[in-house]
Design brief:
The structure is a homodimer. Chain A is α/β, with parallel strands linked by helices. Chain A has twelve helices and seven strands. In chain A, the strands form three sheets. The first copy, chain A, has a three-stranded parallel beta sheet. In chain A, a hairpin with a 2-residue loop joins strand 3 and strand 4. In chain A, helix 2 crosses helix 3, helix 4 runs parallel beside helix 7 and helix 9 packs antiparallel against helix 10. The first copy, chain A, is globular. The N and C termini of chain A lie far apart (45 Å). At the A-B interface, helix 2, helix 3, strand 3 and strand 4 of A face helix 2, helix 3, strand 3 and strand 4 of B.
């Protein structure tokens, strides 16, 4: 209603479709539903835009539909969750799940505009906010020690205040988006498949899809990160006090560091799947310190198992 | 079998999916079927390609699937009908029908390679060959008087010989593709919506979808062209002897010039639909002579009706 009134206030004549989606319904059927609405609304090829207001799943489903309808109509994103503000709302990718694989279908279809307003975060529950913080943390670990320190200092408070009422909230959001943009912009079409932002996304998508709908996206990313950091530490890449610091911060942000769904066999399948998707080589990003990663192609089952056991022991 | 043996001969290990498609099944369900096969075949993101061998519908359905799978996998086209050699096999568009509208969904997704071999035309029946000639004729009318003259001289013979056994067959195919490329290449993403190649495609798609599956794509294009030429002649744009020459050639190529499906009300809807698709203005290409077109936005129902009546009288 508030959104309808907003458009009314500016005398904009809009058609509204309200969608209730979740990761489990992020599929071709939902895309088809949106396409039918485009047909009903008579969305033209130019001069009007489809405006998607919602979380990452909604932005992605509407984005895929917009990319297909009339071979592409204008698409504007208004992310309303922390996760979609710092992740799905940045970059050019749209996608839906298919046959149990996360984002197996989609396109590179940049939005014409993305409008970010942290006021929406008032409506996001704290578990979802934590899930969003996982992607902020990811950016911090792969490239931004200072952001990591800000999260250590202010993270729990931001969570409690839902990013309202303080400058740190805005600052963290801006810095996370800036980090994502710096990683994505020079490689928008992913010619280069060795990407630091894939940190947390090697085991993550498989963990998420296997446990659907129990585990949120950011939680799956967090589980991948904790396992990957233990693995990096066992390899001697990451100092053990840095590992502790990362796991401590994850707990402070109320993110899971271990879960019953972390089965070494499933994790091994995830590695196989990721390698196919990354052009035949794994290109597994592992942190060498807080703020930097290196890439590895040679992770084996024994190593995954042993990292998994070590992680269980720590918890 | 011949195609399987071909790949075997070159020791290429391929997965084969055989699809039997027609304009009526050129839809999202067929795309989904192809996507499932990609999943079974474990099509990787890079270093292997999907090869589509078939007519325009198959190339389009597989092309849409290739554009979506892993946000785009390599796609190679081998058109096997005259229509797909000169039309669907040229350019960057892939698409499927949706809710009764032709190619309402799709992308601009250029194939990495397109291989043309006229030997395939031996397997195409003569009605389908005529349908392909409609697109050749279109290119001739909008930009290539010499191609038009070649069709007048050799068209019926090429049809009879199925484009085999003579240099003219190759020459006509090359010239038609070159004409299409010259029109499409500078405007591959259709930033410019005023396109001479839309000749035959204002009423055409609506005629085709309304009469499905009775009328072939090229036949619908032919019906649009005959009506448009009569309209151009009534406007005084096209000399009447040129109109006669066009209609005579259409008949010689065994293309329909009139059909019971040409209902003025449906034609008016087609105009409305085309204007929405062309960014709000009709941009209707009409021939001013054989080899040139001009664009018009102001076609009304009376004019369509009167052209329709005139066409009926002539037949």
């Amino acid at each position: 209603v508030a959104i309808k009134n907003y458009f009314k206030h500016y005398s904009m004549d809009v058609h509204v479709l309200i969608l209730s989606l979740s990761e489990s319904s992020k599929d071709l059927d939902s895309v088809r539903r949106v396409l039918r609405a485009f047909e009903d609304f008579q969305v033209p090829r130019r001069r009007q835009a489809v405006i998607a207001v919602g979380g990452g799943v909604l932005l992605d489903v509407v984005g895929v539909a917009a990319s297909l309808y009339r071979r592409g109509v204008a698409y504007v994103r208004v992310p309303t969750t922390l996760l979609s503000i710092v992740d799905a709302g940045v970059g050019a990718k749209v996608g839906v799940n298919f046959e149990g694989h996360k984002n197996r279908l989609g396109s590179f279809y940049p939005a014409q505009h993305t409008f970010v307003d942290r006021t929406f975060l008032r409506t996001v529950d704290s578990r979802q906010l934590s899930s969003g913080l996982a992607e902020v943390l990811k950016i911090a670990i792969v490239r931004d020690l200072e952001l990591f320190e800000i999260l250590e200092q202010h993270g729990p408070k931001l969570l409690e205040q839902k990013f309202q009422a303080s400058d740190e909230g805005l600052h963290v959001i801006r810095r996370a988006i800036r980090g994502m943009l710096a990683e994505l912009a020079p490689n928008l079409w992913e010619q280069e498949l060795q990407r630091p932002v894939d940190f947390g996304h090697t085991f993550g998508p498989t963990i998420e899809m296997a446990a659907l709908p129990r585990i949120l996206h950011g939680e799956a990313v967090a589980l991948d990160m904790s396992l990957s950091c233990v693995l990096a530490s066992q390899r001697g890449l990451l100092a053990s006090f840095e590992l502790d610091r990362i796991l401590d911060l994850m707990r402070a942000l109320r993110l899971p560091v271990v879960d019953s769904s972390l089965d070494p066999c499933i994790l091994q399948n995830a590695v196989t799947d990721a390698a196919i998707h990354r052009g035949g080589s794994l290109r597994f990003p592992l942190p060498t310190r807080i703020g930097a990663v290196a890439f590895f192609d040679d992770i084996n089952f024994t190593e995954i198992s042993s990292a998994h056991s070590a992680l269980l022991l720590r918890s």
